[in-house]
Amino acid sequence: MKKLGKALIIIIIIAIIIVVPSCLYTTQENEFSVVKQFGKIVATTDVAGLHTKVPFVQTVNSVTKATQIYDLPASEVITSDKKTMIVDAYVLWSVKDVKLYTQSLNSSAQIAQGRIDVIVYNAIKTTISSMTQDELIASRDTAMKISATESTMDDISINDITTEELETEVSTNTDTQIIVISDLLQKCIGDQCKQYGIEISDVKIKVLDLPDENKEAVYTRMITERNNIAAAYKAQGESEAQIIKNTTDKEVSVMLSEASAKAEKTVAEGEAEYMRVLSDAYNDEEKADFYLFSLQLDALKESVTKGNTTLFLDKDSPVAQIFAGN
């Protein structure tokens, strides 16, 4: 009898060891617990701690509440102006209704990502097909306004405009809203994911690029445009340089003419003053005779230079009379 009692106690202890853990389950922070009985959901909880269930009959599945990232494959889309673009995006999503998530997707993140892939790709295609390529390239992740200035000035003049010219320029400023593409995608997605018990919190465009076959043509066009701009700058610079050169040459010519005229006037005034001084110095007959005699001596001096010592004079010349002692 005692042996039977001991055996019964041992059996009870073993049963407790086996059954009690099967009656308990733990829910961790940041996760849901789903209790199923014969494949049917009988309870869900997101309260962290220890909970009970019917052993051997009920099973428990854990589903994370954390935000998950799904990286969509890069795909081609066509803009409203018929330009092909490569879009690579990622999605932030999380489980909001664990019961619906389990019933519709069997708590499978892989199946959920497949549904998200279809929904987000369709949203991207729909959104981008309503935008031009320029609008798509100018799109931003945050709202922003810019002021567009309407002016009749060409691109070069606008690029070279100074602060003073900008202040005096008559222009019209209009506010332009930069498109927030993530907001458009969220609006397009709407509540489509609610049927699966999940929520897409954000959609971000990682890469926005041209197809490889189009890049070379775009690069060539960009190079051509830059060369045209450079040629316009060069032509404008050469034109301005020629204007400066012509103006400078004109100013130099005027300055040289004025200087030459002034120099000639000064020479004439000097000669006039010279003649006036001579006239004052030899204004009587004796002084005039002396001046004439001096000129004759100078002429005589010039005639006996370079070894020529023979001199022929008229006997009536003043110089001959000097030599004759008259």
Structure overview:
Helix 3 (109-128) packs across helix 7. The strands form four sheets. Strands 6, 7, 8 and 11 form a four-stranded antiparallel β-sheet that branches. Strands 3-2-5 form a three-stranded antiparallel β-sheet, with helices on one face. The protein has a two-stranded antiparallel sheet with strand order 1-4. It is built from ten helices and eleven strands. Mean pLDDT is 80; it is low at 143-176. It is an alpha+beta fold. It has helices at residues 2-23, 98-105, 109-128, 133-138, 155-159, 163-168, 181-189, 212-281, 285-303, 318-324; strands at 24-27, 31-37, 40-45, 49-52, 58-64, 68-71, 75-78, 84-95, 144-150, 172-178, 198-209. A hairpin with a 5-residue loop joins strand 7 (75-78) and strand 8. Among the domains are: 2-63, no CATH class; 68-140 and 179-209, 2-Layer Sandwich (Tetrahydropterin Synthase, Chain A).
Features:
single chain; 326 residues; alpha+beta; three-stranded antiparallel beta sheet; 10 helices; 11 strands
TL;DR?
The protein contains ten helices and eleven strands. It has 326 residues and is α+β, with helices and mostly antiparallel strands.
In terms of topology, how is this protein built?
Layout lengths: L1 H22 E4 L3 E7 L2 E6 L3 E4 L5 E7 L3 E4 L3 E4 L5 E12 L2 H8 L3 H20 L4 H6 L5 E7 L4 H5 L3 H6 L3 E7 L2 H9 L8 E12 L2 H70 L3 H19 L14 H7 L2
Antiparallel strand pairs: 1-4, 2-3, 2-5, 6-8, 7-8, 8-11, 9-10
